Amino acid sequence: MAVPAHIKTHPVADELAQLLFEGADRERVHGAWRRLVSGKEFAYRPGLPPEERTALSYERLRLLNDAAGDPVELAADPYRLAGLHEWTGPVDGGLTTLASIHYNLFLGSVLDHDDGRDRDLSAFTSLRRTGTFLCTELEHGNDVASMETVAVFDRTTGGFHLTTPTPGARKFMPNTSLTGGPKTAVVAAHLVVDGEDQGTFLFLTPLSDENGHLPGVRVRPLPQRTGTPVDHCLTSFDRVWLPREALLEAEHGRLGADGTLTSTLGNRRKRLLRSINRVTMGKLCMSAGTLGMSRAALTIAVRYAHSRLLSGPKAGERVPLAAHRSHHGRLLHALATAYAMTFLHRSLVSRFAAHADEERGEDRAEVEREVAVAKGWITWQARAITTECRERCGAQGLFPANGLADLPLNIEGGITAEGDNLVIWVKAASEMVFGHQGVRAGESGDPEGRELTELPFLRDLLAETERIWQDRARTALREGPSGDPVGRWNVTSEAALEMVSAHARLQAADAFLAAAARARNPRAGFLMRSLCRLFLLRQLGEHTGDLLAEGRLTPDHVRALPKAVDTVVAELAPHLMTLVDAFDLPAEVLSGIPIASGGSVGGDEVEWEETGVRAGVVVAGSR
Questions:
Q1: CA of 536: how far to CAs of 275, 376, 470, in Å?
Q2: Which of 140, 181, 595, 603 has its CA 20 to 30 A from that of 360?
Q3: Which of 31, 34, 7 is nearest to 18 (CA)?
Q4: Please, what sign has the CA dihedral across residues 218, 202, 427, 334?
Q5: For 91-118, what is the mean pLDDT?
Q6: Is the backbone peptide bond immediately before 173 cis, with ω within 30 degrees of 0?
Q7: Distance between CA 404 and CA 386 in Å, rounded?
Q8: Are the C-beta atoms of 485 and 358 separated by less than 8 Å?
Q9: Per-residue pLDDT tens for 156-200?
Q10: Please, which contacts does 436-440 make with residues 24 or more away whose CB atoms are closer than 8 Å?
Q11: Is residue 449 very low, low, confident or very high in pLDDT (cuts 50, 70, 90)?
């Protein structure tokens, strides 16, 4: 197999990159997007007001569409769709949002229904019309089952009247302005036939044309939010008539000419979940975007740590920031987490793809729960990593030109989008208290004679941590106040959420260990195992008391833990650059970021700023 031109020549970094980026499938999944963000059209644009930055994201969406190949195939390919978000996330947060909505939520939803591929989709695949997705409402966010928007079946015309019945039912916060050209939405609404609610379905709804918004469509821009701007709006409908073919149908509901609904699903909640099925892929997309941001932030911070010099212990001596344990130790912990996040995400995209065409049975439901748990953990870790990297670059990290300042703000959007993290973890926790079987007491073995350097031992300790918190949650639920469901869950939720947290980290560790076992280069294998060891040691630190009490650790283990962490950090410190080189950020991107290319804002970059030479990975505040 020919080696793609962009792959580095350093054998260890090459091997790590192959492990991180899908191996033999690397070019198909990542190649087009990596080349796209290297182009001058994605250059840093300082000083743009919010309206122009939003318009620029739409312009870039068209460039992305040109690079996508067949947009229909893209919308149906979880690997490429996630890869898109990984590479656009660091360079344009607004573009990442628009692409996620257009390709996944809009186009994907149309394709997932009966006649999706038989419809004329050319207006959307060519981006003559941009697709958007209207589900959540002003007063109904995570509780979308309570949405109020209705589509009333009209027997006279055979069509529907789409109506927003109350101010709280206005759709919040889709990109429905006139920026970017004409738009069409997939709108979630209750199908009402002869006064009877048949459940939530999706309706293909044109919103605007070249002359403005269509009759009955009411759009009000929302105030600017944090992060890269997107044209978020409140949107409502005043008896907007839709033709019969606007209803997106599938096995969960088909409407006969006489108004009779046939469905393979027995209740309205299941019909809702089937209608908004694309939200699960959306969770993978949100996670992917924040993964890309984390890896970009680490690459910038590590490069800066090696080029930024400060006074050494001897007069006249200068040493790099990276020489100090207090500095490189923090970056290494973040790197270990970023690798774990990436491998967890890869494993879940594969599992999701394997079950994508199945009915929502037990296996599919478990995959959806694992995706939701991972989305919460990955996006929360991404915020912590990008904040750490920004701080480690000091005042230089505050300048958007250096690619770090606004990454945490963009990640906030991922934390909330496609299900607020805490809410989806609470749902997962309620299912897992009794519906998930973790490691049981005794399976992890006698700790005597075990070393903290042993990866299987460390992995089993993390599994035991999950078991401890599950047992506590079960006990709390059984002993909670009877006749008070809210009270019972209140005394259970803290332990249940700790169980979910431990579960997410265990799944990441298992994915990391599996990837390390695939390493062929001995040095790359050593780095992978060491980085995984550091990740596991870090996860166990806060749980040593519980593990000691349960007899899973000895007092000597607890006393040895700080030294074990310091030892692996010392082993990895000389390899910081190799570990971030494997993230494979394009040279064109890095060369334009002052602190990633040996410079600083306020130094020689005056000429750069005046001449408009590329300043790559920057997102909000300038894009």
A1: 39, 19, 20
A2: 140
A3: 7
A4: negative
A5: 95
A6: yes
A7: 7
A8: no
A9: 999 999 999 999 999 999 999 999 999 999 999 999 999 999 999
A10: 436/470, 436/503, 438/463, 438/466, 438/467, 438/470, 438/503, 439/463, 439/464, 439/466, 439/467, 440/467
A11: confident
Q: Determine the Cα–Cα distance for residues 307 and 319; give it in Å rounded to an integer.
A: 9
Maximum alpha-carbon separation in the chain: 91
Tokens of 107: 């186009």
Amino acid at 101: I
547 three-state secondary structure = helix
Mean pLDDT of the residues in the chain: 92
Distance CA 454, CA 558 (A): 15
Please state, as a whole number, how many other Cβ atoms lie within 10 Å of the Cβ of residue 611. Answer: 7
Angle, helices 11-20 vs 325-355, to 10°: value is 40
Task: Identify the CA nearest to 269 among candidates 211, 200, 339.
Answer: 200
Q: What Rg do the C-alpha atoms of the chain give, in angstroms?
A: 26
> How high is the pLDDT of residue 9?
53
For residue 432, say if its preceding peptide bond is cis, omega within 30 degrees of 0.
no
Q: Whole-model pTM?
A: 0.93
What pLDDT score does 611 carry? 31
Convert 382-399 to b/e letters by CB count within 10 Å (16 or more is b): bbebbbbbbebbeebbeb
Residue 360's pLDDT is: 63
